[in-house]
Amino acid sequence: MDWLKKLPVVGPWAARLMATHAWRSYERLDRVKWTRLAAAMTFTSFVALFPLLTLAAAIAASTLSTEQQDKLQDKLAEQVPGISDQLNIDSLVQNAGTVSVVAGALLLFTGMGWVEATRGCLRAVWELPDEDENPVLHRAKDAGILVGLGGALLVTIGISTVASALVGWIIRQLGIEGGFGGALLYIAAFAVAALADFLVLLYVLTLLPGVEPTRRRLVVAALIGAVGFELLKLLLSGYMQGVATKSMYGTFGVPIALLLWINFTSKLVLFCAAWTATQSKEAELTDGAGDAPGPAAANGG
């Protein structure tokens, strides 16, 4: 697209754009065929999502009160728009034991597949070869990463819940619940959710592909991903509530919208990975390594 730089008016702006880190990250994505990578991540994520939600809902349904179950459904509606309406909490309470065993087995199988597929896609963005390991140890490593990710998600959800409750309590104590207080609470809830996403992305962008990007690039990429993920949730939540259930796809409207949401999220994660993998312009000129990262880039740039 160098021809854009030669245009009389647009040229200088195009040249500035193409010199940015964001554009060079996109060039890396285009080089590694990121739409195919996102499609692979979307499929495995979609398959693994339902056992995960079913297992979490079944465990919670058998241990929580009715009021807490309602809060759980609201939380699911925030994190995965359109899905909570499809869960029959009463049925999960009655069959919690069986559902937990079946969903747990499915989650272990599909979850390890998700870890392997996501790791492969992220390493492809880094232009690194697949790891050559013992198959048994490889599966054990995938299971460990899956458990670690689950623990990280639980911790961040706990932090998000406690922080949101604390902000709400402070606003009520100050007596500014209406108008400005409501807007402040909404902004605080968005910030807390973005912080939780940020912590999870730090895990996903480093431990999953097995790389050590520079701290600056990692922090910026995780911030971009966290804010972008929350904006995607707002966008897709509104779409699912207002359009998906009334679209021409009929009963398939929600699953199709969910697939779109997962695909957009996968592309966002891939862009964040590309941001961490792309060296600064100065470093590329100094190393003379072109676009492909060497071992030093993969281990911290």
Characterise this structure.
- With 301 residues, the chain is mainly alpha-helical.
- The chain has one domain (25-283, 294-298).
- It is built from twelve helices and no strands.
- The protein has helices at 10-18, 21-31, 34-63, 66-79, 89-94, 96-125, 135-174, 180-206, 215-242, 253-277, 281-287, 295-298.
- α3 crosses α10 (253-277).
- The chain is globular and about 65 Å long.
- Residues 289-297 have low confidence and may be disordered.
Biggest β-sheet, characterized?
none
Mean pLDDT: 76
What is the number of helical segments per DSSP (H or I, 4+ residues)?
12
* Estimated share of beta-strand residues: under 5%
- Structural category is mainly alpha
Shape: globular
Low-pLDDT residue spans: 289-297
Distance between the termini: 27 Å
What is the radius of gyration?
A: 22 Å
Order of helices and strands: HHHHHHHHHHHH
Structurally, how many domains make up the residues?
Answer: 1
InterPro entries: Virul_fac_BrkB
Main location: membrane
Protein name: YihY/virulence factor BrkB family protein
Membrane topology: Multi-pass membrane protein
Entry keywords:
single chain; 301 residues; mainly alpha; 77% helix
Short description:
The chain is mainly alpha-helical and 301 residues long. It has twelve helices and no strands.
SSE blueprint and pairings:
Layout: H1 10-18, H2 21-31, H3 34-63, H4 66-79, H5 89-94, H6 96-125, H7 135-174, H8 180-206, H9 215-242, H10 253-277, H11 281-287, H12 295-298
